[in-house]
Amino acid sequence: MEEIDSAQSSKSKVMTIAALAILTVVAGGGGWLVGQFLAPPPATEKAEAVAEVAPNATGAEGVPKIATEANGVVQLEPITTNLAYPSENWVRLEVALQFNGIPDVALAEQIHQDIAAYLKTVSLQQIQGPRGFQYLRDDIQERVDLRSDGRVTNVMFRTFVIQ
Predict the structure, then answer these.
(1) Which of 15, 109, 144, 155 is exposed most, by the fewest CB atoms within 10 A?
(2) What range defines the domain where residue 136 resides?
(3) Distance from C-alpha of 135 to C-alpha of 143, rounded to nearest angstrom
(4) Is residue 6 a part of any domain in this protein?
(5) Cis peptide before 55 (omega within 30 of 0)
(6) How far is it, in rounded angstroms, from Cα 47 to Cα 40?
(7) What's the pTM value of the predicted model, to 2 decimals?
(8) Which ranges does the record mark as transmembrane (predicted)?
């Protein structure tokens, strides 16, 4: 009787191991199949898009820039100015403008001057913390909207440093 129990016990162990192996293969295959349906397509399309970037859209190392006039984006020159109070604090801001349609460089320069003039009226207390920064972003966006009559759809902050 002990021989029958040990034979059944080893047979049940083999069946358990076989069942686990089959379930593992099925689960792995199902995961692979779902991954094929949900995964993004290969990066070949992105590489072709990067190869078609405008010739003036490469950076110092030959890496393509995202913010180009061909994409409707004009990156403004950095703005460095002192704050209204305390006047010993300086702010440096780099902004890019996304145009709806063909970018207007003359309008971008006017907006650049408006932002620089506005930053000279801001105090450090007004722009401290996340809420202050959000107010600054909203104020600059509102000024850009007024100046551009809706031709600029987005103001993108590249850098913002207070010293």
Answers:
(1) 15
(2) 72-162
(3) 12
(4) yes
(5) no
(6) 14
(7) 0.58
(8) 12-34
